[in-house]
């Protein structure tokens, strides 16, 4: 006993400030175990905690009692949070609350928002994304939060100009605003916003029906640094000419999918904007080689995304020559990318700190080009070679980029175990690996990856049907694994899944469609993988037992159950009832008539969105896919 | 004397005599008769130029030919004005000093007349001490009118004399001065010189060409036919700024209310363009707003047309500001909010936005009905207004006509629109509306 006290003493001698500074450096799991150590640590941790991520509304009262200084409330794991829950939290943390995330909640109304705005005067951040039911009344309630600086309203489709006008007048301190997909907001609302919120630094106007008229006041904003105009068909070259008048501060510009933007507009823009760091002109189909002249002006440019554009050799050369500080270059589905252009880029950017290459669907790129990239771009972090001719030799040179984090090799049929073992032996920092339909891969390659890349978070092995349980057992060593896609790997069984579920406790997304996984696998999942959010068990030979066990995972939000033959209606209903946090459910149409209407409406009232899929349709779709 | 010159002199004498007789008469004529000058006055140029079509005025072939030559010469004089230096020597040969002398003599005569008139004015002013103010004013008006007419005649005669552009310019500036006097006079007396005068006098000063053109551009198009030299871009270009000094009698009106911006004594005087503008301006700004909207009962108007315009969209203003102002258009609301600090768009309540359509329709019918009944009383009201503010100073007889015409124009539209339904409604709806609108609708008419 004395020794234990002695051990405790050094901690007790530390002041609370020092301990809380120490706690700042701990991740969530460590602070959890810290709080479980002793009563004093428990209370210390309770006082220190600033962020509350609710899992279920029922746990709110206990959390409110325990934690007193919450600054950030995150409801993303608790989609069923309704007005009552939000207003209770707002009452409790009225003095401290700074940030609220409601991006996955759909059940709250403007009443909760107005209470939140009234009680929490210090509210600075608010995420209302995906609140598709919110109307102008809710926007008016938000406008009462005078100190709001960051507001996300993506997909608030029913908020109109009137609502955004209220926000513009009320929230003068706004610095960041995302209005993506708020399709009812027009030039008038955007114009007023620019007129009133002069402190705006980042603005996302993607997919809004705006034209020059709305954009020109936005471009007068003195502090604007980031502007996203993705998919705005009303924006054309003339609008970009306005841009040059007042865009000295602009650093990030995204005009991808703006079908009416052509080369001329971009040229006029580039001529006058010297502060631009990130430029995304993906899928602006009319971009041509004239653009190459403009890049001389943009020596500061760090990111260029040219996805889906036709790129000439001249353009590649000018990019290589002019953009000395380039860090990321994206050529998704670019038709004109060839060996010579790539070699230009690779030669010039040897010294660039980090360079990303996205080259999905670049059919003109030969095997030798990858060797070139590998030898020249030693600092490559992000490489996307989806559907290219890359082979083991290319992978060998690519694997020399020891900083590689993200490697996409989907549909690269020439990649075999040998290439993967190169990657596994050298790329220790790899976190994301995509091997979709790399048919030649077997257990040997996956084991090499699992051994060599301990930081792996995501692996996609869909339709690699040569891999077996040995791979999964090896992957169980990657304790950070969060996403596992093993769709259509017919050799896998419950044994492998059990191993993964025991090793990878953070597993959140799992796709086991068309795998031979039985109830045993699901039961071990339910026991071990409490973090699971999303699962697809279509075409698996599971029964009611497995499904009900699965339903005990409290975080489960997204469930797809299609074509599971041995499932009964009772089992399905029981599982759905048990899964309180379910937000998205895909079911066969055949169940629709068998499940009582009242039950369905009850489930939908909880905030769950049920999508019905017809088997026949599904079969005709799957006919397109090569087996 | 050449036949040309003889004829020319004859025409001048003819025209001048015509004027003389008129002028002598006009001294004692009433004010309104002044209009009669114009037809005759305008004839004079046609005597010279219009001969090609109106040959019967001259008996023989010789005469018509001579007049042709004459007119051509006169035209060439005009040409000389427009392109002075280059062709001067050529045109100087055609220029006849004896004809000029005749014209000068005529002018001298005119100037004497003018002197006499001014002396008359001076004499009358001496007598005026004993007379009543009204008579003095009347006489002054007559004298100024006569003066103006003589001056105009002088100008027109002199215009045909001048051979070069420089002279015409100086003339134009003189004319401008006279014009300034004329408008000044009109402003001082707050009265109206008859409108016809300014209409007839063409602003381009084309009387020299003996052809009238309403627009400057038309003159230039016409001049192209006179020779290649008028087809150059410089000749076809718009003459710059000369029009400002032309003797255009642009009449502007002043509001009788002292201190109003539309009053002539105001520092930043903004004149009103027509007499109708004066009427509506006076009603809107200086009269009580007697017409209340029967639908919202808040908006008031003093001009009935404004009320009607308002009622067309009353209740349809769905765009509401937090300050209570309503707008029929969203962009107007947003402009308002952008302008004022602290104003926010107000969220409209569902269902309360618009009037039920049938009710709104019936109400508008009701108001139309009331207006129809109201028409006579309204006119009476206008008259009362006039007598009260001594309107004879502000509204000319002509102005009165137009205003009463406008009064008619305001009303017939609803009459036709609701011709079928108005009667049936009149019976059902009159009960509702008689108390509200009793102020300006006679109860007898409704019951």
From TrEMBL, chain A:
GO terms for cellular component: SCF ubiquitin ligase complex. InterPro entries: F-box-like_dom_sf, FBXL15_LRR, Leu-rich_rpt, Leu-rich_rpt_Cys-con_subtyp, LRR_dom_sf. One of its GO terms (biological process) is SCF-dependent proteasomal ubiquitin-dependent protein catabolic process. It comes from the Eukaryota. Residues 68-267, 300-499 form the F-box/LRR-repeat protein 15-like leucin rich repeat domain. It holds the Pfam family LRR_6. This is F-box/LRR-repeat protein 15-like leucin rich repeat domain-containing protein.
UniProtKB/TrEMBL annotation, chain B:
InterPro entries: STOP1/2, zf-C2H2_STOP1/2_C, Znf-C2H2_STOP1/2_3rd. Transmembrane segments: none annotated. Residues 13-30 have a biased composition (Polar residues). Residues 1-36, 428-447 are annotated as: Disordered. GO terms for biological process: response to acidic pH; response to aluminum ion. Residues 318-347 form the STOP1/2-like C2H2-type zinc finger domain. The keyword Repeat applies. Keywords: Metal-binding, Nucleus, Repeat, Transcription, Transcription regulation, Zinc, Zinc-finger. Residues 253-287 form the STOP2/WIP2-like C2H2-type zinc finger domain. Its main location: nucleus. It is found in: Nucleus. This is C2H2-type domain-containing protein. It comes from Salvia splendens.
